[in-house]
Amino acid sequence: MRADGHLAPRPANFVPLTPLDFLRRSIEVFPAKTVVVAGARRLSYLELGALVGRLAAGLRQSGIGQGDVVSVIAGNTPELLALHFAVPLVGAVLNAINTRLDPATVAHILAHAEARLVLADAERAPLASTALEAGGLKTRLVTLDEASLAAFTQGQGPLPVTLDAVVDEWQPISLNYTSGTTGSPKGAVYHHRGAYLNALGNVMALGFDERSVYLWTLPMFHCNGWCHPWAVTAVGGTHVCLDRPDPAAIVAAMREEAVTHFACAPVVLYNLLHQGGEPGGKLARRVRVATGGAAPTTALIQGLDAMGIELIHLYGLTESYGPVTGCAERADWGEPEAAEKARLLARQGVRHPLAAEVAVVDAEGEPVPMDGVAMGEIVIRSNTLMAGYLKNAAATEEAFRHGRLATGDLAVRHGDGFIQIKDRAKDVIISGGENISSLEVESVLHQHPAVLLAAVVAVADEKWGEVPVACLELKPGQEPPPEVELTAFCRDRLAHFKVPRRFVFRELPKTATGKIQKFQLRAELGSG
Ligand code: ADP
User: Fold this and answer.
1) 305 burial via Cβ count (<10 Å: 0-12, 13-18, 19+)
2) Is the CB of 182 under 6 A from ligand 1?
3) If you measure from the C-alpha of residue 178 to the centroid of ligand 1, how many angstroms do you get, rounded to a whole number?
4) CB-based contact 175:69 (threshold 8 Å)
5) Cβ atoms of 246 and 276 closer than 8 Å
6) Are 266 and 514 in contact (CB under 8 A)?
7) Of 159-163, 193-197, 273-277, 307-311, which gets the smallest average pLDDT?
8) Is 502 left (phi over 0), alpha (psi -120 to 50) or beta?
9) Which residues contact 12 (CB under 8 A, 6 or more apart)?
10) To the nearest 10°, the Cα dihedral for 519, 522, 527, 528?
11) Which DSSP category does 482 fall into?
12) What is the DSSP string of 455-480?
């Protein structure tokens, strides 16, 4: 076909891709449906739209417009959900900050992001003001409570939900700082187009539809809740807000609100499974959980299965808007017995529906053989990758070197094309020249009846270079097992050089999303 000017895109057939449109549609299509639940509070899509419009009016009233960063420190409240639409509605950029960070780190983020305004819920307002003070920042702080919001909007009517502020689908929609598992947080810039596409990928991968009732156990501030604020809204589903992923509250919400889906890091699931030292009991209806952020063990997957919770295992990074691969039960697996099914599901899986390429490559950038043995680094090409790191061109170029996003995650590829992560490059233990996958040792320790959580890290050793040391958090009421018993338990299941040389019993340091901070353990054990 010859190029022909009249075939060029025009406003009638080219609309910038933006998740704002999901809300616009759901307001039109499901105006009266109850779609936000937070305790006794209930909102319909019309009411959610009004809250969004009201917050947007306040933002505009405060002089916030195109490209301005609005930082928010809040739990999983209807307001934070609404801000996922209200901030982009005025062309601004949402920077939702981890509520568990210390004031100095929050101050660092606010300064680095050049936040024009800080919004905080009543519980986190003291953290916000301490951070502003600590950083010597004069940024205005508005508390997300009724009285302050009334003053914020100064009696202005809500703005209508339109796409007017989205002039280019590549314009930034949010700014997310990495969770700090490896130390220094960087600010990943998301655009409207990527957020739109990844939200749709989630709809496909998790099977969201109009009947979906999504429980907010994942913090909305983490990678914009993996894009679920937009995904659930896209299908006209219901958001059940939960401020804390407390096991009893999760089970209660599941029963009372007929929850169909939730998402969280595996650590939340370990707690759910062992709440009060006893398994949580079987749920009334089948529920799907998407877990990721760290690898779930086969013991966890089997436990969830017995509870009637169906697992979708996701892998991703802040840089990829959350999920970029997924592993869910497939028809062509037949009916594997429980242990085999858990083994299959513990793999990180195949690319997310809208990710263009997820490969495992060797040092030359060539794909490793699909033999489940050869290890390489996971690299990604996708429309669902960040634009880059804010004010850090060097880190952006480094991340995208060789034309793909280098993840630092080491994996193998199985014969069926499924990826399985063996370790983070930084967490591999090299002992006597042999690589030890910390994940492999951890998954053995997770089979021990006394162990709730295990983290295995490298500690410097004169003879071997490094040796594995296991840090163990025990189930409630469990006494530390004798070291000889744990050693024997590992020896029965692992090559001898992989058996931890030492066992340390302690609570494990975690990020707000429940990821274990191994860099901190290494530092404390004197090898960081
Ligand atoms: P940080 O890099 O600070 O931890 P992220 O939240 O971006 O912040 O973490 C992404 C990393 O989490 C990945 O690079 C990977 O190491 C780990 N991860 C995420 N999902 C999984 C998973 N399903 N299995 C194993 N590791 C995972």
Assistant:
1) middle
2) yes
3) 10
4) yes
5) no
6) yes
7) 273-277
8) beta
9) none
10) 20
11) P
12) EEEEEEETTTEEEEEEEEEEPTTPPP
CA 90, CA 165: separation in Å to the nearest integer? 6
CA of 321 to the centre of ligand 1 (A): 12
Q: What is the pLDDT of residues 66-81, one digit of tens each?
A: 999 999 999 999 999 9
Query: CA-CA distances (angstroms) from residue 426 to 181, 457, 501?
Result: 11, 10, 20
CB burial of residue 495 (10 Å; 0-12, 13-18, 19+): exposed
First to last CA, the chain: 61
Answer whether 438 contacts ligand 1 (Cβ < 6 A): no
322 lines ligand 1 (CB under 6 A): no
Q: Which domains does the chain have, with CATH numbers?
A: 13-159+170-206 (3.40.50.12780), 245-423 (3.40.50.12780), 428-525 (3.30.300.30)
Please tell me the distance between residue 212's alpha carbon and the centre of ligand 1 in angstroms: 26
**pTM recorded for the entire structure:** 0.89
- The answer, yes or no, to whether any atom of ligand 1 lies below 6 A from the CB of 437, is no
Residue 424 Cβ < 6 Å to ligand 1: yes
Instruction: Report which protein residue has its CA nearest ligand 1's atom 24.
Output: 295
Of 364-373, 426-435, 488-497, where does the model show the most confidence?
364-373
Cα–Cα distance for residue pair 248/147, rounded to 1 Å: 32
For a ligand 1 pocket test, name from 100, 224, 317 the mutation site with the most ligand atoms within 8 angstroms of its C-beta.
Answer: 317
Q: How far does residue 421's CA lie from ligand 1's centre (Å)?
A: 10
**Helices (H) then strands (E): counts for the chain:** 17, 25
E strands, 318-386, are 322-327, 350-351, 355-361, 376-382
Given CA atoms 78, 286, 19, 178 in this order, what sign does their dihedral have?
positive
Q: Which of 224, 311, 315 to mutate to test the pocket of ligand 1 (most atoms within 8 A of CB)?
A: 315
